[in-house]
Protein backbone atom coordinates (compact mmCIF):
# COMPACT_ATOMS: atom_id res chain seq x y z
CA UNK A 1 0.00 0.00 0.00
CA UNK A 2 1.17 3.49 -0.81
CA UNK A 3 2.15 5.45 2.27
CA UNK A 4 2.50 9.20 2.54
CA UNK A 5 4.04 11.10 5.44
CA UNK A 6 2.84 14.66 5.84
CA UNK A 7 3.91 17.03 8.62
CA UNK A 8 1.78 19.70 10.22
CA UNK A 9 4.00 22.48 11.54
CA UNK A 10 3.72 26.13 12.52
CA UNK A 11 3.46 28.41 15.55
CA UNK A 12 2.10 27.25 18.90
CA UNK A 13 -1.64 27.31 19.40
CA UNK A 14 -2.32 27.98 15.72
CA UNK A 15 -4.70 25.03 15.44
CA UNK A 16 -2.52 22.18 14.08
CA UNK A 17 -3.96 19.54 16.40
CA UNK A 18 -7.52 20.77 15.84
CA UNK A 19 -7.06 20.53 12.06
CA UNK A 20 -5.24 17.17 12.27
CA UNK A 21 -8.17 15.74 14.22
CA UNK A 22 -10.66 17.22 11.81
CA UNK A 23 -9.10 15.98 8.57
CA UNK A 24 -8.29 12.51 9.92
CA UNK A 25 -11.92 12.20 11.02
CA UNK A 26 -10.84 11.64 14.59
CA UNK A 27 -13.74 11.70 17.03
CA UNK A 28 -11.91 14.12 19.30
CA UNK A 29 -13.76 17.41 19.44
CA UNK A 30 -12.31 20.87 20.02
CA UNK A 31 -11.52 21.34 23.68
CA UNK A 32 -9.31 23.63 25.69
CA UNK A 33 -5.73 24.04 24.53
CA UNK A 34 -3.42 21.11 25.20
CA UNK A 35 0.06 21.79 23.78
CA UNK A 36 1.36 18.88 21.73
CA UNK A 37 4.46 17.33 23.27
CA UNK A 38 6.93 16.72 20.46
CA UNK A 39 4.73 15.00 17.93
CA UNK A 40 1.51 13.04 17.62
CA UNK A 41 1.16 10.67 14.66
CA UNK A 42 -2.31 10.17 13.26
CA UNK A 43 -2.98 7.44 10.73
CA UNK A 44 -5.63 7.92 8.21
CA UNK A 45 -6.67 5.52 5.46
CA UNK A 46 -8.37 6.84 2.44
CA UNK A 47 -9.39 4.46 -0.34
CA UNK A 48 -10.08 7.05 -3.03
CA UNK A 49 -7.15 9.45 -2.77
CA UNK A 50 -4.94 7.52 -5.14
CA UNK A 51 -6.05 8.73 -8.55
CA UNK A 52 -3.48 6.73 -10.51
CA UNK A 53 -3.99 3.08 -9.62
CA UNK A 54 -7.72 2.77 -9.68
CA UNK A 55 -9.29 2.61 -6.26
CA UNK A 56 -6.08 1.53 -4.55
CA UNK A 57 -6.06 2.52 -0.91
CA UNK A 58 -3.32 4.61 0.56
CA UNK A 59 -2.28 5.31 4.08
CA UNK A 60 -1.67 8.81 5.17
CA UNK A 61 0.47 9.51 8.20
CA UNK A 62 -0.22 12.94 9.62
CA UNK A 63 2.58 14.07 11.90
CA UNK A 64 1.02 16.70 14.14
CA UNK A 65 4.16 18.46 15.41
CA UNK A 66 4.53 20.77 18.38
CA UNK A 67 4.98 24.44 17.58
CA UNK A 68 7.29 24.84 20.56
CA UNK A 69 10.87 25.44 19.50
CA UNK A 70 12.16 23.60 22.55
CA UNK A 71 11.63 20.45 20.46
CA UNK A 72 14.01 21.69 17.77
CA UNK A 73 16.43 18.84 18.39
CA UNK A 74 13.70 16.45 17.20
CA UNK A 75 13.12 18.26 13.91
CA UNK A 76 15.53 16.22 11.77
CA UNK A 77 13.79 13.03 12.93
CA UNK A 78 10.40 14.53 12.11
CA UNK A 79 11.45 15.60 8.64
CA UNK A 80 13.08 12.32 7.69
CA UNK A 81 11.40 10.75 4.64
CA UNK A 82 8.49 13.15 4.69
CA UNK A 83 6.56 13.79 1.49
CA UNK A 84 4.79 16.99 2.40
CA UNK A 85 4.67 19.85 4.88
CA UNK A 86 1.58 21.82 5.87
CA UNK A 87 2.31 25.12 7.63
CA UNK A 88 -0.59 26.30 9.78
CA UNK A 89 -0.80 29.80 11.24
CA UNK A 90 -3.26 32.27 12.67
CA UNK A 91 -3.64 35.21 10.26
CA UNK A 92 -4.80 37.42 13.15
CA UNK A 93 -1.37 37.17 14.77
CA UNK A 94 1.21 39.47 13.12
CA UNK A 95 4.03 37.53 14.82
CA UNK A 96 2.94 34.37 12.99
CA UNK A 97 3.69 35.93 9.61
CA UNK A 98 7.35 36.26 10.61
CA UNK A 99 7.44 32.89 12.32
CA UNK A 100 6.18 30.92 9.36
CA UNK A 101 9.21 32.05 7.35
CA UNK A 102 11.33 30.12 9.82
CA UNK A 103 9.09 27.00 9.55
CA UNK A 104 9.26 27.20 5.77
CA UNK A 105 13.01 27.60 5.76
CA UNK A 106 13.67 24.70 8.16
CA UNK A 107 11.05 22.23 6.99
CA UNK A 108 10.79 22.91 3.25
CA UNK A 109 13.85 24.71 1.89
CA UNK A 110 16.48 22.87 3.88
CA UNK A 111 15.09 19.36 3.41
CA UNK A 112 14.71 20.14 0.50
CA UNK A 113 11.11 19.69 -0.62
CA UNK A 114 9.51 21.29 -3.65
CA UNK A 115 7.23 24.24 -3.06
CA UNK A 116 4.46 22.11 -4.57
CA UNK A 117 4.86 19.74 -1.63
CA UNK A 118 4.05 22.52 0.81
CA UNK A 119 0.68 23.99 1.74
CA UNK A 120 0.09 27.15 3.76
CA UNK A 121 -3.08 27.21 5.86
CA UNK A 122 -4.39 30.45 7.37
CA UNK A 123 -6.54 28.99 10.13
CA UNK A 124 -9.29 31.29 11.32
CA UNK A 125 -10.46 30.68 14.86
CA UNK A 126 -13.97 31.73 15.88
CA UNK A 127 -14.25 35.51 16.07
CA UNK A 128 -11.45 36.04 13.57
CA UNK A 129 -11.46 39.37 11.77
CA UNK A 130 -12.65 39.46 8.18
CA UNK A 131 -9.89 41.66 6.78
CA UNK A 132 -7.28 38.91 7.01
CA UNK A 133 -9.10 37.07 4.20
CA UNK A 134 -7.02 38.84 1.57
CA UNK A 135 -3.69 38.72 3.28
CA UNK A 136 -0.57 39.22 1.24
CA UNK A 137 2.61 37.42 2.11
CA UNK A 138 6.15 38.37 1.27
CA UNK A 139 8.58 36.39 -0.85
CA UNK A 140 9.23 33.41 -0.63
CA UNK A 141 5.95 32.53 1.04
CA UNK A 142 3.94 34.17 -1.72
CA UNK A 143 5.01 31.38 -4.10
CA UNK A 144 3.21 28.78 -2.01
CA UNK A 145 -0.35 27.63 -2.27
CA UNK A 146 -2.35 29.38 0.45
CA UNK A 147 -5.75 28.25 1.66
CA UNK A 148 -7.98 29.66 4.37
CA UNK A 149 -9.63 27.37 6.88
CA UNK A 150 -12.64 28.22 8.97
CA UNK A 151 -14.18 25.22 10.67
CA UNK A 152 -17.20 27.10 11.96
CA UNK A 153 -18.10 28.70 8.65
CA UNK A 154 -17.14 26.20 5.99
CA UNK A 155 -15.78 22.88 7.29
CA UNK A 156 -16.43 21.02 4.02
CA UNK A 157 -14.30 23.49 2.12
CA UNK A 158 -11.45 22.87 4.57
CA UNK A 159 -11.78 19.10 4.07
CA UNK A 160 -11.86 19.51 0.31
CA UNK A 161 -8.70 21.66 0.25
CA UNK A 162 -6.80 19.16 2.38
CA UNK A 163 -7.94 16.25 0.18
CA UNK A 164 -6.84 18.13 -2.94
CA UNK A 165 -3.42 18.65 -1.37
CA UNK A 166 -3.12 15.00 -0.24
CA UNK A 167 -4.01 13.88 -3.75
CA UNK A 168 -1.27 16.10 -5.19
CA UNK A 169 1.26 14.59 -2.77
CA UNK A 170 0.24 11.07 -3.79
CA UNK A 171 0.64 12.03 -7.44
CA UNK A 172 4.17 13.23 -6.73
CA UNK A 173 4.99 9.95 -4.96
CA UNK A 174 3.59 7.95 -7.89
CA UNK A 175 5.54 10.00 -10.42
CA UNK A 176 8.76 9.53 -8.49
CA UNK A 177 8.15 5.79 -8.38
CA UNK A 178 7.64 5.64 -12.11
CA UNK A 179 10.85 7.60 -12.67
CA UNK A 180 12.69 5.22 -10.38
CA UNK A 181 11.30 2.20 -12.25
CA UNK A 182 12.34 3.71 -15.59
CA UNK A 183 15.82 4.49 -14.36
CA UNK A 184 16.28 0.86 -13.34
CA UNK A 185 15.38 -0.58 -16.74
CA UNK A 186 17.10 2.03 -18.90
N1 LIG B 1 -13.64 26.66 18.46
C1 LIG B 1 -12.47 26.52 17.86
N2 LIG B 1 -11.34 26.57 18.57
C2 LIG B 1 -10.17 26.41 17.95
C3 LIG B 1 -10.08 26.19 16.54
N3 LIG B 1 -8.80 26.05 16.22
C4 LIG B 1 -8.09 26.18 17.34
N4 LIG B 1 -8.92 26.40 18.40
C5 LIG B 1 -8.54 26.61 19.81
O1 LIG B 1 -7.14 26.84 19.88
C6 LIG B 1 -6.52 25.87 20.72
C7 LIG B 1 -5.17 25.54 20.19
O2 LIG B 1 -5.28 24.72 19.07
P1 LIG B 1 -4.30 23.48 18.85
O3 LIG B 1 -4.78 22.79 17.61
O4 LIG B 1 -4.16 22.66 20.06
O5 LIG B 1 -2.93 24.26 18.57
P2 LIG B 1 -1.55 23.62 18.04
O6 LIG B 1 -1.18 24.38 16.81
O7 LIG B 1 -1.68 22.15 17.90
O8 LIG B 1 -0.54 24.02 19.20
P3 LIG B 1 0.82 23.24 19.68
O9 LIG B 1 0.52 21.80 19.74
O10 LIG B 1 1.19 23.82 21.00
O11 LIG B 1 1.87 23.57 18.66
C8 LIG B 1 -7.50 24.70 20.75
O12 LIG B 1 -7.37 23.92 21.90
C9 LIG B 1 -8.84 25.39 20.67
O13 LIG B 1 -9.24 25.80 21.94
C10 LIG B 1 -11.30 26.17 15.79
O14 LIG B 1 -11.33 25.98 14.57
N5 LIG B 1 -12.46 26.34 16.49
MG1 LIG C 1 -0.84 20.62 18.82
From TrEMBL:
One of its GO terms (cellular component) is centrosome. Keywords: GTP-binding, Nucleotide-binding. It comes from the Eukaryota. Gene3D superfamilies: P-loop containing nucleotide triphosphate hydrolases. GO terms for molecular function: GTP binding. Pfam families: Roc (PF08477). Belongs to the small GTPase superfamily. Rab family. PANTHER family: DRAB5-RELATED (PTHR24073). This is Intraflagellar transport protein 22 homolog. It comes from Anas platyrhynchos platyrhynchos. The lineage of its organism: Eukaryota, Metazoa, Chordata, Craniata, Vertebrata.
Amino acid sequence: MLKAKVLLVGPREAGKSVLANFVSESIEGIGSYVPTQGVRILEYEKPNLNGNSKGAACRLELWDCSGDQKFETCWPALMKDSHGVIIIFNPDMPSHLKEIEMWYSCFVQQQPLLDSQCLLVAHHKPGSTEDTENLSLAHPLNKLKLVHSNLEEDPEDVRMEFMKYFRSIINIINENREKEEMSIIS
